[in-house]
């Protein structure tokens, strides 16, 4: 796969000295879905705004489809669609007119058949003659997506597309994203919802304080960093873990009727067999066993937290991108 | 050149105008009629003639200019301020469109609207007074240039403004006084000599004088200077706009 979007040494500093992006490097492959995760104020929106031309970069280069976003901005922006985080729409305009406007603005001739197809796909066709201010919040968000799709972008940015959206609509959005991916559109989305990244992304990038901490294949990330837990249910509650099991660093649950063992899935030996033997040797009777993979959320919290402590210790953290 | 983009902006801006057509149409007609009732009939009947022209007819060019200037400014400033206020400007900034095209769309629409209003006032005025037009082409040229240059100025104000109050400030505090003191309702020659000299620093004097010349073939200042003034003002606005887009001043962070 080739990179359709390439960000090199991108730095964005504001006049007040605040450095929103610190030498960001990022390559995005054609046709993939990249989810950008990060806490509030990490620089997700600044990164997207700078790529799309809303914010000027302080240093660095960005190319989209091989076109420089500064020197060849027309060709680069022709390929980009942006769905902003805030619902920014002209309140008194009709849905269909605002979508047509977007297509025209991007230099494309009128195409009513395409607009109809997009509005139908986003369940907006019945509302095409409604004014924006008559729509619900979820509908408005769909209008923003319709506007971005109206000019047939090759790269689509979704800045927190499902923030404040109900569960059903969120699932709908995921379906739309999957459909777009099927047509070959590259999608970069930022999100707070880790399950969203887990559900639809191919790769995951983590950004914090203007630095990309890592970009990794989702499956590999979860496998690499995933800790698994084995919970062993006991027939009778215990008050403390027998001394003979100390080496396994077990935790006792609150009820005292289960012990929890953490292990690394990548380890050569998980130690499960020895643990189970040791448990029965200690005279405990087990009734049930279950394993649990740590979610992306736990990985994410762990990563951001780790970077934070690293920063405190060394004052610096190497980017792992 | 992204003509589809220019047209999209132009149409979008004009749509706002058509949505409020009654206000757009009625308010200039009403205010012009009021001026005629007050200045033309009530006061004008005592003034008789100014420089050989019936007073009611004499004030028409000034009245048209007043509306074309204020409407040009308010339409263009509102047109570009509104997307900033609503946040919809993100789309403009991320589109494959350059600043000349953005300006053409917004200023073109604002100038069209103010021209429309100028024509409506001209038509209303013709119902009240006999209105000769000595130089019709010059009249059209002055109207088009004035609407364009003041729409350019409005565009600058719209980008500069950070609130609706600021948006109103320049038209209210600068343009209206300049027009009233620029000979819209009197001839410069009616002023004492010292005020005549001071008035010549008011750029609007040249526009109203030139525009009046196109009707009555009589002017306070030479027509070439009038044309030079409006051309200079247009160029100044274009230079400021070019600077705004080059630096991203109050548009791109």
TrEMBL record, chain A:
<protein>
    <submittedName>
        <fullName>ATP-binding cassette domain-containing protein</fullName>
    </submittedName>
</protein>
<dbReference type="InterPro" id="IPR003439">
    <property type="entry name" value="ABC_transporter-like_ATP-bd"/>
</dbReference>
<dbReference type="InterPro" id="IPR027417">
    <property type="entry name" value="P-loop_NTPase"/>
</dbReference>
<dbReference type="GO" id="GO:0005524">
    <property type="term" value="F:ATP binding"/>
</dbReference>
<keyword id="KW-0813">Transport</keyword>
<keyword id="KW-0067">ATP-binding</keyword>
<dbReference type="InterPro" id="IPR003593">
    <property type="entry name" value="AAA+_ATPase"/>
</dbReference>
<dbReference type="InterPro" id="IPR017871">
    <property type="entry name" value="ABC_transporter-like_CS"/>
</dbReference>
<dbReference type="Pfam" id="PF00005">
    <property type="entry name" value="ABC_tran"/>
</dbReference>
<dbReference type="GO" id="GO:0016887">
    <property type="term" value="F:ATP hydrolysis activity"/>
</dbReference>
<feature type="domain" description="ABC transporter">
    <location>
        <begin position="5"/>
        <end position="234"/>
    </location>
</feature>
<keyword id="KW-0547">Nucleotide-binding</keyword>
<dbReference type="InterPro" id="IPR050763">
    <property type="entry name" value="ABC_transporter_ATP-binding"/>
</dbReference>
Automatic annotation (TrEMBL), chain B:
<feature type="transmembrane region" description="Helical">
    <location>
        <begin position="198"/>
        <end position="215"/>
    </location>
</feature>
<dbReference type="GO" id="GO:0043190">
    <property type="term" value="C:ATP-binding cassette (ABC) transporter complex"/>
</dbReference>
<dbReference type="InterPro" id="IPR047817">
    <property type="entry name" value="ABC2_TM_bact-type"/>
</dbReference>
<dbReference type="Pfam" id="PF01061">
    <property type="entry name" value="ABC2_membrane"/>
</dbReference>
<dbReference type="GO" id="GO:0140359">
    <property type="term" value="F:ABC-type transporter activity"/>
</dbReference>
<feature type="transmembrane region" description="Helical">
    <location>
        <begin position="140"/>
        <end position="161"/>
    </location>
</feature>
<keyword id="KW-1003">Cell membrane</keyword>
<feature type="transmembrane region" description="Helical">
    <location>
        <begin position="102"/>
        <end position="128"/>
    </location>
</feature>
<dbReference type="InterPro" id="IPR000412">
    <property type="entry name" value="ABC_2_transport"/>
</dbReference>
<keyword id="KW-0812">Transmembrane</keyword>
<protein>
    <recommendedName>
        <fullName>Transport permease protein</fullName>
    </recommendedName>
</protein>
<keyword id="KW-1133">Transmembrane helix</keyword>
<feature type="transmembrane region" description="Helical">
    <location>
        <begin position="55"/>
        <end position="82"/>
    </location>
</feature>
<feature type="domain" description="ABC transmembrane type-2">
    <location>
        <begin position="19"/>
        <end position="248"/>
    </location>
</feature>
<comment type="similarity">
    <text>Belongs to the ABC-2 integral membrane protein family.</text>
</comment>
<feature type="transmembrane region" description="Helical">
    <location>
        <begin position="20"/>
        <end position="43"/>
    </location>
</feature>
<feature type="transmembrane region" description="Helical">
    <location>
        <begin position="221"/>
        <end position="245"/>
    </location>
</feature>
<keyword id="KW-0813">Transport</keyword>
<dbReference type="InterPro" id="IPR052522">
    <property type="entry name" value="ABC-2_transport_permease"/>
</dbReference>
<keyword id="KW-0472">Membrane</keyword>
<dbReference type="InterPro" id="IPR013525">
    <property type="entry name" value="ABC2_TM"/>
</dbReference>
<feature type="transmembrane region" description="Helical">
    <location>
        <begin position="167"/>
        <end position="186"/>
    </location>
</feature>
